[in-house]
Every structure is written in C-alpha cells, then in structure tokens.
Amino acid sequence: MGGYVYIMSSINNSTLYVGVSSNLPIRVLQHKQKEYPGFTAKYNCTKLLYFRRFDTIEEAIVEEKRIKGGNRKKKEILINSINPEWRDLYEEII
Known about the structure:
single chain, alpha+beta, GIY-YIG endonuclease, three-stranded antiparallel sheet
C-alpha cells in the first residue's frame, strides 16, 4: 500500500502543517472535522493545499521529514508548484 505526504493550512494560510497518511481522504476529513485534539485542531488547519503519492508509506515518511526540516518558504514553493491559488484540494481527492 502506498502513502501520501500532504500540507494543510489554516483558513487564512498563516499556519502550515505537514503530515503523512496511507489514506489521504479519510485523514484530511479527520483534520476538517477536528476529530483529534492536536496541532491541526488547535490552529484550525482544515485546507488541503498540497499532496503527493508514494509507492510505499516509508517513502512518504522520508519525504514528510524532509519537508518538515525545511523552512516556510520551501513549503510555499511546494504548494505553489501544484496549487498557486492556494485553494482547498479536498474535493479533488474524494
């Protein structure tokens, strides 16, 4: 089974969150519904701005760590590469 790395943002795009999941639609819905207390619920990160699929979850985890190690500017470059309008991509994955 593959995996996804993804970036969520707050409504006003001031806060970014990088995550990894083997089931992206369900995981994003969990963020949107604030099913788990934590960073995304606290900072209202409910917009899916970026995602990339990998053949294995292990590859996705490596990429997640790489992205998390970068600064905000690098995350913005990734988002802009597939989503220059910074619109919520959730409808595209369900």
